[in-house]
Design a protein that fits this description.
Length: 305
């Protein structure tokens, strides 16, 4: 089923408004869209992170579906065990297979949980792993992660991170999984359709969703969707999918907006805009251009069917 309109998703809220997320939290917009698109029955596994903190302050919960909170490093491993157990129960006629969705932040995906994620993808468990990427360890004080962009200021990279962002989608796809994709909350229909496609495969799938964070990126809370849109329009966050090893760019940005439009809108890039850091800014721009050209080449060499 392809999502044609918002009404296609009504009545399937997996998480309630009763949470304590910051105003304008891109993560909660992302999570709500994912769960609206997911076909029930499903259950959710979350490592420690912003999502766990704001959705389950004891003794309350915002979850309307089965939800498992586990340690920072082992969400994919726990999801693997759940999937294997449900598969056995189904084979014995004692239960029904559920869709399994892992919702992890960049810290629990790019860094601490990477080993468990790689193992789950290699073993071929049927699950959808979604990284909601706010580009730092936001719930513990805005420390840098491997997802933090070049030049972005955090509490552990106060004058700007000097290393580029890890290409997590290419790493996930390199495991030979059937589906990997990026998505943005401002493109809700694209995101919903990708969730449906990912869950249709009898194997692991991976989605990387940009989740702007007003508190950690330093922009006004009413600008969240604008930030997500700017990231795509500047080619900083390309929207594409890799299906059975074949590439499709879903949003072809033929005339990109200047990179400065994005970084000037966020105080975390203040050091990157200083005259003495002109060389670092040019490196940032080259990374954006090189990544886009790489995707163009891959889409031409291995076009989606």
């Amino acid at each position: 089923m392809q999502v044609a309109k918002l009404e296609d998703l009504y009545g399937r809220e997996g998480i309630s408004p009763g949470h304590s997320a910051c105003a304008g939290c891109g993560m909660m917009v992302t999570v709500r869209q994912i769960l609206l698109a997911a076909e029930p029955p499903y259950l959710v596994v979350s490592p420690t992170g912003c999502l766990e903190i704001v959705s389950s302050p004891y003794p309350y919960t915002a979850w309307r579906v089965p939800w498992v909170h586990v340690a920072f490093e082992n969400a994919a491993a726990v999801a693997s065990g759940i999937e294997a157990a449900l598969r056995v129960l189904e084979r014995k006629g004692l239960g029904k297979r559920h869709n399994i969705i892992v919702l992890g932040g960049d810290g629990g995906t790019f860094d601490i949980g990477f080993q468990a994620l790689s193992g789950a993808l290699e073993r071929g468990h049927k699950m959808l792993y979604v990284c909601y990427d706010n580009e730092a360890y936001m719930n513990t004080g805005i420390q840098r992660s491997a997802a933090t962009p070049l030049g972005a200021s955090t509490t552990t990279s106060p004058i700007g991170k000097l290393e580029p962002k890890k290409d997590i989608v290419s790493i996930a796809a390199a495991h030979g999984i059937p589906y990997a994709a990026t998505a943005s909350p401002h493109l809700w229909r694209d995101l919903a359709n990708k969730v449906k496609k990912a869950l249709s495969y009898d194997g692991p799938s991976f989605m990387h969703v940009l989740s702007p964070c007003p508190r950690g990126w330093y922009f006004d809370s009413n600008q969240t969707i604008k930030m997500a849109k700017l990231a795509v329009e500047t080619r900083i966050f390309p929207i594409y999918e890799i299906e059975e090893g074949r590439y499709r760019i879903n949003v072809m940005v033929s005339k990109p907006r200047p990179v400065e439009d994005y970084i000037k809108a966020q105080r975390r890039f203040a050091y990157l805009l200083r005259p003495e850091n002109a060389e670092l800014l040019e490196r940032f721009k080259k990374l954006v251009e090189d990544r886009w050209n790489y995707l163009l080449r891959m889409a031409e060499a291995f076009p989606a069917k």
